[in-house]
Amino acid sequence: xxxxxxxxxxxxxxxxxxxxxxxxxxxxxxxxxxxxxxxxxxxxxxxxxxxxxxxxxxxxxxxxxxxxxxxxxxxxxxxxxxxxxxxxxxxxxxxxxxxxxxxxxxxxxxxxxxxxxxxxxxxxxxxxxxxxxxxxxxxxxxxxxxxxxxxxxxxxxxxxxxxxxxxxxxxxxxxxxxxxxxxxxxxxxxxxxxxxxxxxxxxxxxxxxxxxxxxxxxxxxxxxxxxxxxxxxxxxxxxxxxxxxxxxxxxxxxxxxxxxxxxxxxxxxxxxxxxxxxxxxxxxxxxxxxxxxxxxxxxxxxxxxxxxxxxxxxxxxxxxxxxxxxxxxxxxxxxxxxxxxxxxxxxxxxxxxxxxxxxxxxxxxxxxxxxxxxxxxxxxxxxxxxxxxxxxxxxxxxxxxxxxxxxxxxxxxxxxxxxxxxxxxxxxxxxxxxxxxxxxxxxxxxxxxxxxxxxxxxxxxxxxxxxxxxxxxxxxxxxxxxxxxxxxxxxxxx
Length: 494
Fold this sequence. Notes:
Elements: E1 16-19, E2 26-27, E3 41-43, E4 47-52, E5 58-64, E6 69-70, E7 78-81, E8 85-90, E9 97-102, E10 106-111, E11 126-129, E12 135-140, E13 147-152, E14 157-161, E15 166-171, E16 179-184, E17 191-195, E18 200-204, E19 209-214, E20 225-228, E21 234-239, E22 245-250, E23 260-263, E24 271-276, E25 281-286, E26 291-297, E27 304-311, E28 318-321, E29 333-340, E30 344-351, E31 367-368, H1 376-380, E32 389-390, H2 418-423, H3 455-490
Parallel strand pairs: 2-6
Antiparallel strand pairs: 1-30, 2-30, 3-4, 4-5, 5-7, 8-9, 9-10, 10-11, 12-13, 13-14, 14-15, 16-17, 17-18, 18-19, 20-21, 21-22, 22-23, 24-25, 25-26, 26-27, 28-29, 29-30, 31-32
């Protein structure tokens, strides 16, 4: 009888990572040296933001994705904080809005100009003050517009309505020690935290209560992390009592024992997990490591399946993660990381090898788009909704997005009457940029601002097509003449 090893079938078994060419990296960046287990990098389909060294305060760079190569030392930064910046996070519903938390105990929200920074940005759209110690975590609500969570070294979690600059919920007394990480559930009804007291807690912020708690999720004293998965389970990284790095999967219905537990190695860098809810793949990056491990989470034991490891020579200081709608679907790219070295940022592309050039439905199910499922007031009133999904089939082109405006009394809607905007005038902070920053797709042929409507537009398109045809015909004649001259020369006729 022959015992043949059965290989588990998975479309992600052969995923491979590949760094981009040197000229496509972002060079000469002085990455922050602050001692904090943050990613130091945040990415969206328009910009990459990197926390950098700054004298006399805190700053971070915001670079358009296409601005690769050497970054000049005089390149403008976002520099309104008076202490080092510890964490940054792009708004999922507006690609031009970013939040930052700092050692100066404040949270600031910034509006980035559409074409990036041309001068230092010192005036935030709004400053959120409520923490008594440094703010180490900022994370946006996944489905409600303008809802932002911040956690500080005062062991307090604050939830803000950025649109009205008001504190919605103040969660004190739930954490006896430093909060290492915070992760929202997919619908934003709850969030989970990892704390220095070795406990993982699931919290309902609108009730202000701990829904579930697992004490000593990892026995080690080093920092751990916890993230919500799409099906409501929790994935944690931490250390064993013998300081070995661990991964664990927990079911909220039964927190006595983990569903799966794996030990990796005995390195001492904190493990940063990045989760893709569309493919159920978790990527684990260790600070100071030179590798990215990835695992598939499934319904069958052992639940956490190791896929592969991407290895490079240089250790990583931090890591950025591109949302799904910013990937190149034509190349079967399922993840893109922005690895921070000491002096540069290097994109790393994760690809599933496929022979077909067609759109791969199984790799790209509908994913979370930039539209908010509800307003902040609706969420506060008790509503819960999953993310608004979009298809990536047509290399998804996002719709226009409005500026972030702050009214101290009410959230401004697109349909708000002019009087409401005027009433909010005295309390609205100065704009973050001289030009309005909106996310918009490039205009289609003949659809610019001055394009005529109806028949005029059709006439213009027809004229353009006719001109192109004439140009092609002319070039064809020129090619024929050149070929004739070439044949004469080859035959010895001058």
